[in-house]
Amino acid sequence: MKRYRKRLQKTATAVAVLLLALLLVCPAQAMAEETEAEFIYLETPGEFTVMFTYDGEQPEIVFISPSGKEYGEGISSEEEFLYAHGSSGGWSTYKVLHGEAGQWRLRCDKKNNEEITYQLVEVVNGICIQSFVIEKIEDGSATVAFEVTKGEEETEYAYTISAVTGASDALVKKELKTGRASTGTRMEESMPLTISSGENYRLLLEVVHEGSVETFDSMEMEPFSYENPATAEAIGNFSIDLDMESGLCQVNWKDFAIQGREVQYKLTAVADGNTEEPVYSAAAKDTATSFYVPAKAKKLAITISYVKDGVASKAKTKEIDLEGGEYLKVLTENITSDATLTLEYQTTEPVELYLTLNKEGGVYAIKGKGTLLFALENGQNTIEAYFEGNEGIVYRVSKEVYYSFVSPVITLYEELDGKVFVTETACIAGKIENASALTVNGVSVEVGEGGSFAYDVPLAAGKNEVTIVALAENGVSTARTLTITNEAAGSQKEGTGTEAGDVPTSAAALPEMKAAGWFPLIASAILALVLVAVFLLAMAKKKKGPAIFLMVLLGCTALATGFLYFRLHTFNNSLRYVSLAKDSAVLASRYLTYETYAGYAAKGAAALFLAAAAAFTVGMLLKKKAKGKKKE
Fold first, then answer.
1. Whose C-alpha in 113, 116, 148, 485 is 20 to 30 A from the C-alpha of 139?
2. What is the DSSP string of 17-46?
């Protein structure tokens, strides 16, 4: 009865379209105003179908049998009464099953309709499956029996028997048998079960009658499990190549491919047992594929099966323990200042590790867990390494490592290594390059503009080791260790050569050299050049007196610049300079620059003086020799 109701609802629209062409048993007429009226007289028991049409709200219809029994929505069972309504209103169809002979009456609530019309129509009997059972399943075949009717009519119909599995929204259907048969006849069919082994299979029978109106029906059996005796053995083997750096997994079974045109392979990769969301799943005729393994996966299972002649083979599975099993890793970062590349491995059996580093290759015997160390070249380094572990699984690493040996540079304004102090602290002043952080004996020191720094390191009595570490952003570091001695006050000279009692409280004796401070040095250099030019002119004109005078002035200029250089050098190597560096590392750095330039000026003036003296001496000798020849 449920199937009949389903068919009635599906064909309701078709019935409405064909309504005017069907045999009219009773002419259309307007419903009377009264709520109950005579409807139809049945001479013999049977069924009838009535279609009502209306313009407004769906009316309430009740059919009253000759014995007074009422039939209608909500008061009759499906074995007695069927109905269907238009999806957007306008019509309703009712069918009374097993109606009594005699006068039938009709009660109607018109609702808001002005007029309701009805027509008694002849309904085409639909084809209906009465039974469908499995007689037996053996030797890879199934025998089924079924019976189909179409009312009292004897007619031919087409049937299809299929095996289905899966949910309705993802149904997998395999056709097993087709044919034609007559209604009212019990059919028995045997067919090979050309389906793969599995669970929750269902046999599906579909029947179709092609008459003036096409009708159809279908029926499914209860689920059953099936083990196909023709199931082929699993594929012989397949290889796995896993790059543990990038996560790329390549699977290949070309050497174990199954012969046949219609062979299709199915590969499924599952991480951590999550079969509902596989990492990768594919069905194709190819014999190789690749995918990426999730970074956080702990276990990976790869399964391959194939389908030939419509039947799936047994599956072959390989499992990889990504957390505690075999592996190969490069422990060195992508950018490093360490000249050593570290490769870590773990195997269960002795294997050979193949490695190529910057086009240089080698083979290494490894077993268990351990590391291998290799020297890196400056710049970009390319490493390729792999070994074949259990079950033919290749563990591989491919990586680019950039090695740079540019290290931070530490410059001290005063070399304090081996120096002796009579104070409780020593000022470490200087600058760092190629670095972003600095520590002195593990204490972080603030770095100023240009990398300058100054820090008072506490001194214990006796010898003290002071470690200075400059650290770059990429982790490269440079360290310097100084040994500084702390002795009692007033004992010996401090390492700069200045007596402890002579230590000034400030560096006021040499103010900062700005424009005015540079004038003596610049003027001395210019004067030296002018004096040399005039000296050469006097020598050319054989003016001995002026030449001697100019040479004396040039010597004085050299002494002046030399004195300035001496003052700066003495200051930069005294405790006064240390005190200045403590107050201003930038100013301390400038004094080192002053000393450098003063040194250039002093050396230049001295060189000019010596050249002038040599020229004067040679000139005098040549003049004396010329006079001697003249007397002869």
1. 148
2. HHGGGSPPSS---BPPSSSEEEEEEESSSE
Q: What is the pLDDT of residue 103?
A: 93
| Residue 300 token pair | 């990976």
**Which of 183-197, 417-431, 561-575, 613-627 is the least confident region?**
613-627
**Local structure of 96: helix, strand or coil:** strand
Q: HSE, CB side, 13 Å, CA atoms: give it for residue 188.
A: 3
- Report phi then psi at 523, rounded to 5: -60, -40
Q: Which residues contact 508 (CB under 8 A, 6 or more apart)?
A: none
Cβ atoms within 10 Å of 232's Cβ, excluding its own = 17
Dist. CA 403–CA 333, nearest whole Å:
9
Q: What does the block give as tokens for 45?
A: 């028991």
Classify residue 309 by its DSSP letter: T
Helices (H), 184-287: none
Q: Above 60 in pLDDT, residue 420? A: yes
DSSP 486-517: E--TTSS--TTS--GGG--SSSTTS----HHH
Q: Between β-strands 239-243 and 393-403, what pairing exists: parallel, antiparallel or unpaired?
A: parallel
Q: Which of 115-119, 328-332, 598-602 has the lowest mean pLDDT?
A: 598-602
Strand (E) positions, 404-476? 409-412, 420-421, 425-433, 437-440, 443-444, 452-458, 462-471
Count the Cβ atoms, other than its own, within 10 Å of residue 252: 15
Q: What is the residue type of 438? A: L
Residue 10, pLDDT above cutoff 50: no
C-alpha 158/C-alpha 181 separation (Å) is 7
Q: What is the CA radius of gyration of the chain?
A: 54
| Contact indicator for 566, 588 with CB cutoff of 8 Å | no
Two tokens, residue 137: 């399943």
**Angle at alpha carbon of residue 425, lines to 419 and 426, rounded to 5°:** 40
**Contact of 108 with 60, CB cutoff 8 Å:** yes
Give residue for tokens 């019309």.
117
Cα 596 to chain centroid, rounded: 56
Per-residue CA distances from 479 to 403, 426, 439, 501 (Å): 19, 18, 9, 34
For residue 15, give both structure tokens.
């019935």
